[in-house]
What does this fold into?
Amino acid sequence: MTKSTGEKPRARSRVQQFRERMQLRSLKARKKVEDISKEDVKSFLRRNAFVLFTVGAVVFGIALGFALRPYKMSYREVKYFSFPGELLMRMLQMLVLPLLISSLITGMAALDSRASGKMGMRAVIYYMTTTFIAVFIGIIMVLIIHPGKGSKDEFAKQQKIEKISPADAFLDLIRNMFPPNLVQACTQQFKTQYGKRIIKVKMIVNDSIFNLTNATQEISQEEVIPLPGSTNGVNALGLVVFSMCFGLIIGSMKEQGQALRDFFDSLNEAIMKLVAFVMWYAPIGILFLIAGKIVEMDDITEMGGQLGMYTITVIIGLMIHGMIILPTLYFVITRKNPFIFITGLLQALITALGTSSSSATLPVTFRCLEENNKVDKRVTRFVLPVGATINMDGTALYEALAAIFIAQVNNMDMNFGQIITISITATAASIGAAGIPQAGLVTMVIVLTSVGLPTDDITLIIAVDWFLDRLRTTTNVLGDSIGAGIIEFLSKDELQGGDVELGSSVLEENEVKKPYQKIPQENDYENEKPPDSETKM
Ligand code: ASP
It folds into this structure.
């Protein structure tokens, strides 16, 4: 009895305490709301204007697109309608080349070889790990959901797809790393083409009827041979390799390299200023890009069951990777809220969604990371251009998933060895894919050929590729950006000026004690971020 009476007042007082705490909290919250002045709202809107415009553009673009669909515009009308979007693409693409080169050169020149080696190692480990995780998710998803039912009846008519052998594709990747002509690399890539030649083969004919001696006869045979060829498009891989080496060299040239360092640094700053202008136009461009695509697309309700399930499987896979795996990785390594970091990237993600091109999004990604998330410029300049060129988690996930889907549609069972082959070739294909719209569809040929799947079956998934491309590009950009955040965190020792590791190469002679040159940050924050830095847009 006594025990229970003693507990009751204690319990009551606890309830009372809780109630009081709640009241206090709600009072504080009310006070906060009351304290919000017009000025605060205005400054919030001003700070987030870009993001608000961009999100508004997406919503308005979708609405406009669906509203215009019933008018059944002709192809020409759709092209005219999407013209403002096309302009955005062209403006962004215009900035990519000088931005990629100048940022990599200055990024590498600002680090000495040991620091860039360490950072590069981290970047490679991050890229490889996340790409393999993405491929794994893709494979698991397609095996669990099993969207392909082993019949091609419901798919549209097939076209012929140009074939390429995986070995040649791999060699092309390496060839493209070393462009013989840098000017040509700005517009063209190497691509093996196939030709035929007639060869004469000597055969021994054994004439057994007349029992004569063996005679040799020459017969003609056709042989398919690889020939050097090229395709249009920037050879980003070659330019990345050149710029990295060039940056490292001018970084180690002491005062002799100063003029070049200043030149590229100034070029980089100038391009970033141009990016700021283009960003004002971005919401309009995105609006028309999205609306135009919605007006143009085929009727979704006519999509076959298998293709629908395939689309859903890809979406689920990309969402798991982008919304669970990457944020968890960021949180586990940096112990910071990944969603605040992702909020800072919203504009880049939406631009990726609108343009389907991670290269074209690169200027916006730079701005988001440097301005909103305050990632060190030495990291972004080094990690982002490389990431946009070779790190494509969304594409890798998609390629592995699509290859197994095509196997399912053809009623072919993949054994463990073939699945491993798909994982490896999907990773290689994602590295080789350019950051341009639907590049992943082209490199899919390598994955399919490697396990003997019919390459013409790529056409089965073309109908939905434009849509999935947007989603995988967004995942690609997210992967690169989170990578920059993680690498910055892991490299903070090297980035701190006080490191006494080496008195080396990149330094000016009068700066020998400082192992790294500091790239001036617009909002210089002396390696220390304000606590709310991530939340500012
Ligand atoms: N469009 C993608 C990108 O730019 C590449 C792809 O087709 O998967 O990242």
